[in-house]
Amino acid sequence: MKEKFAFEAEMYGSLSCLPLAAKMAFDTVGLKISRMQWQALDAEERRKLCEMSTDSEADNRAFREFAIETVQRRCGETLKALPDEKRAAALPPEELPQVLAEKAKSLGYGLTPARWKSLDYDQRYALLKFGGHDGKPKKFAAALAEFLD
After folding, report:
1. Whole-angstrom distance, CA of residue 149 vs CA of residue 146
2. What pTM was estimated for this model as a whole?
3. Where in the chain are the domains?
């Protein structure tokens, strides 16, 4: 698996919910998996999707093929393509998005441009996913606590 965050620790046992490592991989290859589709996969298939690399074009092709084939076999459904604008919005920018700085400040955290730059890609991705427009405030707060405390 890519980076495992403490605030997601409960997910790694059963993988009943899509952890960030897998979500990031699906975003990278431009596919959207529903919760129902994810839960239809067996534990080994979920684990494999969390562990597969998306670091190269060959890795991306292998991930896409495995994900599409596995969901088709388990659900009889085709994975949907992630719209380009959603795919682009999932990529952490180099500069700190103002909305994240403001949300962090409202929770008592000083997320500054310098601090943003010191975070690794996976940490930025987590903050962007949880603090963005369709975010999850509780997970955003947990991520901030883990990364900034």
Report:
1. 6
2. 0.88
3. 11-85, 92-148
Residue 61 in this model has a pLDDT that exceeds 70: yes
pLDDT of 90 above 70:
yes
Question: CA 146 to CA 94: how far, in whole Å?
Answer: 20
**How far is it, in rounded angstroms, from Cα 63 to Cα 70?**
10
Confidence of residue 101 (pLDDT cuts 50, 70, 90): very high
